[in-house]
């Protein structure tokens, strides 16, 4: 990989990438691996099954809660110490889930665990953008995203298998122990990105921390139409997939009375398609701009969502819906990392602050959109879900059209080898 600002050995580069990937995978696995056990959790607590979707959406909302502060803090004090703090917080929340006795406490811990996702978005993503050049950063985000996608792909299957031998409390204990290992890896290999020497020999000072300046920075971002459009588009494009993750246990295991193992198998086509889309993105970056890649991705993206709406009118809803979701997911995988890069460089503000705002807006759209789909009947049957999720995803097209007409031009930074 090519980079300039931070001198790292090949071993540190590999260890750094693996550690960030492991933390991202862990934060997603804490959600997806537990999903097959959620009906057991609600049953043990004598709680309504609506808490299955609520727990998932609270996890997403938790990713938003602290991002407004995490990003600017990492601009001021460095990405490394903030990510170490986030990993520790996540591990403690997983440990606390082992002894919880009420569904309200369980949901509160899901909110705190979701904050780990906020540290991934607001801290680790900007670090990759700062350490590597544009093409390498997009490739890394796509390839690391493939590893993270192994969670919703393998998480339900792994969770279903583990439930044969372990309780859901023991699964949380395993996540807590794994977070300790990840923390040690981050401590050993993650570089610091503040107070580094630039190519001109001068030092790059940390960004001053001021709540007033943070507020003004966020206000400026809210006035940036291109940035807002790109961030909301990120959330709307992912909404059908997020809604599927949150409602699939209810739709398949409760409504259709499928086993946890069969439920996990139905996830494979969807998330395998996202991974395939990310691999295609790596190939397309060779001869296409980011805007051109997104334009190509719109073909499977729109075709899949239209197919999902058509599945709402069919009696064979499950195979058609999964097939349509897979086609849509192919387009999502081809475009997501490229769109994130365009959103990040839609503003010249500190990348920790910008990344935090991207995360807050996109995750808020996904969390609130997923909750709305569940509230208005998306969890009642597959036909309702297919219609609502398909229409929800298509809402991104006007915003995406405006963005692609005048795409921002990310600066080509960090291109020399040090």
Spatially, the strands of the biggest sheet line up as 1-2
Estimated structural class = mainly alpha
- CATH top level label: Mainly Alpha
What is the assigned CATH homologous superfamily?
MFS general substrate transporter like domains
The CATH topology is what?
Answer: Growth Hormone, Chain: A
Strand content: under 5%
Q: What count of helical segments does DSSP give?
A: 16
Succession of helices and strands: HHHHHHHHEEHHHHHHHH
How many domains comprise the coordinates?
Answer: 1
> What global shape is seen?
globular
Helix content: over 70%
**Rg, nearest Å:** 21 Å
Could you give the distance between the termini? 10 Å
Described by strand count, sense and barrel closure, the largest sheet is: 2 strands, antiparallel
Reported CATH architecture = Up-down Bundle
Secondary structure: number of strands: 2
Low-confidence stretches: 1-5, 196-204, 411-418
Mean pLDDT: 83
In short:
It is found in: Membrane. This protein has 418 residues and is an all-alpha fold. The chain contains 16 helices and 2 strands.
What's the layout of helices and strands?
Elements: H1 10-32, H2 38-44, H3 50-65, H4 67-77, H5 79-97, H6 103-131, H7 134-162, H8 168-189, E1 196-197, E2 203-204, H9 211-222, H10 225-255, H11 260-284, H12 290-311, H13 317-344, H14 351-378, H15 382-394, H16 397-405
Antiparallel strand pairs: 1-2
Helix pairs in contact: 1-6, 1-7, 1-8, 3-6, 3-10, 3-14, 4-5, 4-6, 4-14, 5-6, 5-8, 6-7, 6-14, 7-11, 7-13, 10-13, 10-14, 10-15, 10-16, 11-13, 12-13, 12-15, 14-15
Pfam families: MFS_1
Domain Major facilitator superfamily (MFS) profile: 16-410
Protein name: MFS transporter
């Amino acid at each position: 990989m090519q980079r300039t600002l931070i001198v790292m050995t090949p071993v540190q580069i590999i260890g750094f990438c693996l550690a960030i990937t492991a933390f991202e995978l862990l934060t997603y696995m804490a959600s997806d691996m537990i999903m097959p056990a959620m009906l057991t959790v609600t049953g043990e607590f004598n709680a309504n099954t609506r808490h299955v979707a609520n727990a998932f959406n609270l996890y997403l909302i938790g990713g938003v809660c602290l991002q407004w502060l995490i990003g600017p803090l990492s601009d001021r004090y460095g990405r490394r110490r903030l990510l170490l703090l986030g990993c520790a917080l996540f591990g403690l929340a997983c440990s606390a889930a082992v002894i919880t006795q009420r569904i309200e406490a369980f949901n509160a811990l899901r909110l705190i665990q979701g904050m780990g996702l906020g540290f991934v978005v607001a801290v680790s993503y900007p670090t990759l953008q700062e350490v590597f050049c544009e093409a390498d950063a997009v490739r890394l985000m796509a390839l690391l995203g493939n590893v993270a996608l192994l969670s919703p792909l393998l998480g339900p299957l792994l969770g279903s298998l583990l439930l044969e031998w372990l309780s859901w409390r023991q699964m949380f204990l395993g996540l807590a122990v794994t977070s300790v290992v990840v923390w040690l890896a981050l401590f050993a290999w993650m570089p610091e990105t503040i107070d580094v020497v630039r190519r001109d020999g001068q030092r790059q000072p940390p960004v001053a921390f001021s709540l007033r300046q943070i507020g003004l920075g966020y206000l400026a971002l809210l006035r940036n139409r291109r940035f807002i459009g790109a961030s909301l588009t990120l959330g709307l494009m992912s909404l059908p997939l997020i809604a599927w993750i949150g409602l699939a246990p209810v739709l398949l295991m409760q409504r259709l009375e499928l086993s946890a193992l069969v439920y996990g198998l139905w996830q494979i086509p969807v998330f395998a398609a996202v991974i395939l889309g990310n691999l295609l993105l790596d190939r397309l970056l060779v001869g296409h701009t980011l805007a051109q890649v997104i334009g190509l991705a719109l073909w499977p993206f729109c075709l899949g969502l239209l197919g999902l709406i058509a599945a709402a009118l069919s009696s064979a809803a499950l195979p058609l819906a999964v097939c349509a979701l897979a086609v849509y997911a192919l387009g999502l995988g081809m475009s997501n990392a490229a769109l994130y890069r365009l959103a990040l460089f839609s503003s010249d503000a500190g990348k920790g602050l910008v990344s935090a705002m991207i995360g807050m807006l996109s995750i808020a759209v996904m969390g609130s959109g997923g909750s709305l789909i569940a509230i208005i009947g998306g969890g009642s049957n597959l036909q309702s879900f297919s219609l609502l999720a398909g229409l929800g995803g298509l809402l991104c097209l006007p915003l995406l059209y405006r963005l692609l007409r005048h795409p921002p031009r990310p600066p080509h930074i960090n291109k020399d080898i040090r």
